[in-house]
Amino acid sequence: MEKDEALGKQKTKNTLYYSDYAHHPTEINATLKAFKDNFPNKKLICVFESHQTYRLNRLFSDFVHAFESADKLILLPVYKVMRREEESKRDAFDLAQAIRKKKKETYFVPSWGNADKMIGKIQNEGNTLIVFMGAEDIDANARKFCARLTL
C-alpha cells in the first residue's frame, strides 16, 4: 500500500475513499491535516485501527490529540502483534472515550463488520472524504469495502 492511496470515488454521493499507512500519532495528525487542507469542503471521516497495545499505551495522550482534523472518527480494536504485546492498560474503547470528551464525534466499533455498516451509513450523508488508517488489516478491509461500491 502506498501512502495516501486513493481507493475510489462514489460519484452519486460525491464521496472519496483513501487508504493510508499512518499509525503513529505524529503521522496521523500530519496526514489528516493534509487531507483537510486539500479537501476543505468535504467532511473528513477517519476509520482507524491502532497497531500494538504497547504503542497505544505509551503514546495515549498523543493519540487523543492526533485526530483533531477529522470531523468524525471510527475506532476499531487494536491490532495485536504476537509476542510483542504487553498487558493492556488502555484500549481503543478508552481512546474513543477520551477523544469524545474533547467534543469530537467518535465511535468505537468492536469489529470490522460493525465499522462496515457505520461507514455505509456515513457515506450516504454525501460530500465526504473517508480515510482508512492503520498498519495492518484495515487496508485489506477498506479495499473489500470499496470493491463492493459502484465507483
TrEMBL record:
InterPro entries: Mur_ligase_C, Mur_ligase_C_dom_sf, MurCDEF_pg_biosynth. Gene3D superfamilies: Mur ligase, C-terminal domain. It comes from the Bacteria. GO terms for molecular function: acid-amino acid ligase activity. SUPFAM superfamilies: MurD-like peptide ligases, peptide-binding domain. Residues 13-135 form the Mur ligase C-terminal domain. PANTHER family: UDP-N-ACETYLMURAMATE--L-ALANINE LIGASE (PTHR43445:SF3), UDP-N-ACETYLMURAMATE--L-ALANINE LIGASE-RELATED (PTHR43445). This is Mur ligase C-terminal domain-containing protein. It comes from Candidatus Liptonbacteria bacterium CG11_big_fil_rev_8_21_14_0_20_35_14. The lineage of its organism: Bacteria, Candidatus Liptoniibacteriota.
